[in-house]
Amino acid sequence: MTAKILDGKATAAEIKAELKERVSVLRERGVVPGLGTILVGDDPGSQWYVAGKHRDCAEVGIASIRRDLPADISQAELEAVVEELNDDPDCTGFIVQLPLPPHIDTDAILELVDPAKDADGLHPTNLGRLVLNVNRPITTPLPCTPRGVIDLMLRHGIDLKGKDVVVVGRGVTVGRAIGSLLTRREFNATVTLTHTGTVDLDGHLRRADIIVAAAGVAGLVTADNVKPGAVVLDVGVSRVEDPVTGKSVVAGDVAADVAEVASWVSPNPGGVGPMTRALLLQNVVESAERALA
Ligand SMILES: Nc1nc2c(c(=O)[nH]1)N[C@@H](CN(C=O)c1ccc(C(=O)N[C@@H](CCC(=O)O)C(=O)O)cc1)CN2
Fold it and tell me: What ligand 1 atom has the least distance to the C-alpha of 280?
């Protein structure tokens, strides 16, 4: 068996085309959605991700607001920038690029974001509403990566009802949030959240209909621990040394041989990453639509 590809790039392009239409409807009604980004420091990776977010905005007609700040900014100065975007009517949603420098209290910064403008869906109020299952239909932003994972499967015709989903990794942005989404009645999946303390991870993986690997451990999921015909999504990002060039390269959690046993795999890059970017835009558009309703 050779697995089919869950093409995140093509699916994200499809979502962006739909969003472009919705943005032009908003603009006709006098609303210009605007995404703000707050970037602290000069990490090249973070700069690249933020630049990508602004390119995506331009593609669909969302206005961009950038706040690029020095690495030695104080907590109080950064909080003032968050407050400024909370109060800016041109900014309908914004993100604080992570990670922040170690001297900054990240939780305090994220908590200061106006929940209605929380484009990442990571504010405690929005995560709390997700856990309480009170934002149905969607009334507050949802975390982009879990939403992207689910959309990627649904748009490839994969049925989630009654499926055994094993999530590897208990991080807030993916692992914890995806369980709250997938167990909603409209998806009706059964979710097992595994982590570094899980006994017999291989056994869990071998029983899974769907695996969402978000551990950040290169090559953690191999053909040996995947059930034939399973769907495998690779959300992991870690750095490894390329055996040929000796250079540091980005690696996913899923080994290449998984494609020999799975029915579907998401490539990495080109799978969940582009979906995360598209769902960020969708959160911004939905917030603007809600404000208008
Ligand atoms: N405030 C946030 N900070 C961070 C987030 C986030 O969602 N919100 N996630 C990551 C970085 N990130 C977005 O900010 C992000 C990372 C990677 C991709 C992506 O599309 N990756 C490509 C591969 C890129 C490569 O080759 O290096 C892919 O998967 O195809 C999108 C967004 C941490 N910070």
Answer: 7
Q: How far is the CA of 29 from the centre of ligand 1 (A)?
A: 32
Q: Which domains does the chain have, with CATH numbers?
A: 30-115 (3.40.50.10860), 144-273 (3.40.50.720)
CA 218 to chain centre: 19
Look at strands 210-213 and 164-168 and give their pairing. parallel
* ipTM > 0.90, yes or no: yes
DSSP strand E in the chain: where? 4-5, 34-40, 63-69, 93-96, 164-168, 190-194, 210-213, 231-234, 238-241, 248-251, 264-265
Structure tokens at 96: 């604080």
SS3 of residue 66 by DSSP: strand
Which residues are known catalytic residues? Answer: 53, 97, 120
CB 273 near ligand 1, within 6 Å:
yes
The pTM of the full predicted model, rounded to 2 decimals, is 0.95
* Ligand 1, atom 24, residue with closest C-alpha: 269
Residues of the chain with pLDDT under 70: none
What residue's CA is closest to ligand 1, atom 17? Answer: 273
Q: Is the CB of 112 under 6 A from ligand 1?
A: no
pLDDT digits over 227-276, tens only?
A: 999 999 999 999 999 989 999 988 999 999 999 999 999 999 999 999 99
Residue 94 beta carbon below 6 angstroms from any ligand 1 atom: no
pLDDT in tens, 160-187: 999 999 999 999 889 999 999 999 999 9
Structural tokens at position 103: 């001297």
Q: Ligand 1 centre from 120 Cα, in Å?
A: 12
